Amino acid sequence: MYELELERVAAEIVRRGASRVLLQLPDGMRPFAFQVADYIRKTTSAEVVISGDSCYGACDIASRQAIELNVDLLIHYGHSCFDIAADVPVLYVEARILFDVSKMVEAVLPSISGWGKVGLASTIQHTTQLCEVAVALKQKGVKALIGEGVGITPEAGQVLGCSYAAATKLPEEVNGYIFIGGGRFHPLGLALTTGKPIVIANPYNGSVTRLDESELMQLAKRRMALLTAAKSAKTIGVLVSSKPGQRALPDAICLAEKLGDRDIRAFIIYLDEVRAEQLNNFNEAEAFIETACPRIALDGVAGVERPILTSTEARVLLGERSWEETWGHGYLS
Ligand code: SF4
Description:
Blueprint: H1 6-16, E1 20-24, H2 33-43, E2 47-50, H3 63-68, E3 73-77, E4 90-93, H4 101-108, E5 117-122, H5 130-139, E6 143-145, H6 165-168, E7 176-180, H7 185-194, E8 198-201, E9 208-210, H8 213-231, E10 235-241, H9 249-261, E11 265-271, H10 276-279, E12 287-290, H11 294-299, E13 308-310, H12 311-317, H13 323-326
Parallel strand pairs: 1-2, 1-3, 3-4, 5-6, 5-7, 7-8, 10-11, 10-12, 12-13
Antiparallel strand pairs: 8-9
Helix pairs in contact: 1-2, 4-5, 8-12
């Protein structure tokens, strides 16, 4: 299904005269790793090494490995450019997946009955077809709006788990959003950011579902309970990830200082992955604030019993913003 763009990849390797490349694919694309590596070996003279470490998102490029291996090019599949100073040339291959637009629009119509205007959003895999979807919806009497690409989401309508700006900056108010893609990770983020109803059109299995309001309510209750628990903490660990696109040391320092001003002992902890094994031995910390990927806190870290707040929730803890101002209003902006 994925457009692996093998010819483009090989041509770039030759054009750059790369003699060793590092290939990085997110977990879901690893079944294609050997196919890509094989093609590169057969069509170029470059040596190929495949990154076996985790790759959680566009922020998580294997620049450290690339430097250690002294490669000439890092080939990163599955994401668009995240605007990271990688210290090594990076070739991004978005791995698009095309779908049948008219079939999807027909399937989605009953779920948006009564909606005069909708916003469209998707991951990088499907953004090239959003305009086609908008045209097809218009023919059915629905006005579809697509936000302009911005920053780390350069394509119109594109979303990341931590950024919805390109999908949500619309010139007009909409009744809700159609998210095109698989899973609930991105639609949930879209709902938390916009506070709007979300219909999920899954191009992989053709299903159309509506994001359940009760799921959002349960999440809100869980987050509020954690926030309340964190409010009594007198010692807090502020987590900073070493992943290239997540390093937020200045934010963490600022948060730690503000906590200090409120007589809360705050310590900055620098780590690659936020896991129970890393955190549990910091037994003085009564809570953690993580400035890495906001979805880590939201999804929870198995085995960590203490509250882990996002940076946004930390602002609520500090009294800089109210809960009502964040939940459904740029909670994950
Ligand atoms: S910070 Fe999290 S949500 Fe954002 S790109 Fe990285 S892994 Fe994805």
